[in-house]
Amino acid sequence: MPPRLRPLSSANADRPATPPATPPPSTSPDPALDARHFLFPLVEALSGRRPPRQLSATFEPRALTTVARAATPTRTRLGRYRLCHVSPDAAELAGTLHMETKVRAFAARVERRGSRWHCTEFHLLP
After folding, report:
1. pTM value?
2. What is the pLDDT of residue 31?
């Protein structure tokens, strides 16, 4: 016989026990968003190993202009980064880029348009 549960306070004594509510259906964003899809080509463009114009399929012109201005032929590697979904159709990326002489922080916004994700904003801090 299972143990019998009793209420903790007198306020709960007159109420019948109710089963816990079922959680709402998952509304998480499409798992197809992979931050590396944007970040690895970005690092190659910033370090001069890839022409920035090759990013035009996934980067909006404004973000691509920022990448092209920041591109220098130096060894650059990706540090830690974070991806935060702000809505089902938008996410924000933030992280660090390790360059030969310094570490720079970046921030980007990625939005879903139809079935594809596009980087709409990119900022590289000094």
Report:
1. 0.69
2. 47
